């Protein structure tokens, strides 16, 4: 699989890069960002941390607004940020709403037409992208971490828990914790990408349900949530995640309610240092 | 003078706000950003630091991309960021180029028609905006600092040196050091805003010339410049500033050439902590 460098910019000692490639999972050209810490020796290898963005984002928002690069360089983490959906596939209706189609892949493998040929972000993040990283970059074998924001927080928790051999550390900012019961999932993305097979298909991608059923090695999930987030009660519902973890001794959810913060990157930037440290601590010990 | 809150978001403990107001200098509605550190006591007052943005920017770029808020809160600095030009004045030609008209006020007071009624960013930054801050916020009297990027670095150095009683500390990222000889100044903004009166008008706004003639209290100006900046030799010319300072014992220019960095906010974010500390150190001692 071939990747092509789109841009390369020095930042906090390391390099913030953007690549593009032809995705076989998504059947379109995709971009992803990759931050490489300053290499201290030719032989140095890095832990890899995936960041999944929220609705409407591309691979650019996170690298421009979160300020993560300082801590990625300090903690020696390579950070990879995919786009949030396939692009340019021209499926009717894929650009009509901010919360469906382009920019709203929701990190699932669609089973319904006309979405199933392209909307396979789950397989893209768990198979194609890890393979690209393994083939092209100085990574430390088998020790990926994953985190994200909002729709990407849902993606990080659900993907992390379903792939414990691939992802050793998980965290999230303001995740959609129970998308089967959130209007974004229930009435739009899950309904049209996955159809009405709620029991079998929806549950595969619902963080609350996955926390309840998780039977892998112990996981501690760091979750930050702003109290002034406009989507808190209607869409995010972090208490469902916390309650589910209470019923499963294999999962510990550290839910930090951050007073006065909203859903923006100003919130993410404020707490991102803690998340990079969380991942580095677990990955270094794994 | 009345100001109106446009937005307010918690960030690194403090509040990132945006205000709008009717500007009497610019004869239009203007916005500015203001970061207020978390107040530790009702009586706490803050030093004020002005940030001037570069070409094409509004008041948004800096607050979203530089990550300055962490250090503003740590250093107890209120940071104010004006827009880069008047807006919505509908002067023929004011939106035809990225480097002239809207987004390119160049921090001068235009003397030529049709620009002179609105394009008065020098007086806006040195008179109207400081007055608004004094009237509305918990500032520490008479101790403002000023910094900026590119066109805003030119603005910060020229405005700072011409107003030593108002601005006690100065720094810049990749400033346009000698705009009278840069295509941006010579062939566009200076030429059309100020006309051909090079000796009297252009020199008022040329940082290199102002460093040469500066006769106020000693100033140490911190300047960071990336070596991979596409505009370095054609537009920025930091060596002219350094040479001028060598000829004037009242001005010390600490020019730091940063290997591998370009003109972007990735460069600014990498070194902004040093700039906030530079200003806090001088303002606290003033």
Automatic annotation (TrEMBL), chains A, B:
<feature type="active site" description="Charge relay system">
    <location>
        <position position="229"/>
    </location>
</feature>
<protein>
    <recommendedName>
        <fullName>S-formylglutathione hydrolase</fullName>
        <ecNumber>3.1.2.12</ecNumber>
    </recommendedName>
</protein>
<keyword id="KW-0963">Cytoplasm</keyword>
<dbReference type="GO" id="GO:0052689">
    <property type="term" value="F:carboxylic ester hydrolase activity"/>
</dbReference>
<feature type="active site" description="Charge relay system">
    <location>
        <position position="263"/>
    </location>
</feature>
<comment type="similarity">
    <text>Belongs to the esterase D family.</text>
</comment>
<dbReference type="GO" id="GO:0046294">
    <property type="term" value="P:formaldehyde catabolic process"/>
</dbReference>
<dbReference type="GO" id="GO:0018738">
    <property type="term" value="F:S-formylglutathione hydrolase activity"/>
</dbReference>
<keyword id="KW-0719">Serine esterase</keyword>
<dbReference type="Pfam" id="PF00756">
    <property type="entry name" value="Esterase"/>
</dbReference>
<feature type="active site" description="Charge relay system">
    <location>
        <position position="150"/>
    </location>
</feature>
<keyword id="KW-0378">Hydrolase</keyword>
<dbReference type="InterPro" id="IPR014186">
    <property type="entry name" value="S-formylglutathione_hydrol"/>
</dbReference>
<dbReference type="InterPro" id="IPR000801">
    <property type="entry name" value="Esterase-like"/>
</dbReference>
<dbReference type="GO" id="GO:0005829">
    <property type="term" value="C:cytosol"/>
</dbReference>
<comment type="function">
    <text>Serine hydrolase involved in the detoxification of formaldehyde.</text>
</comment>
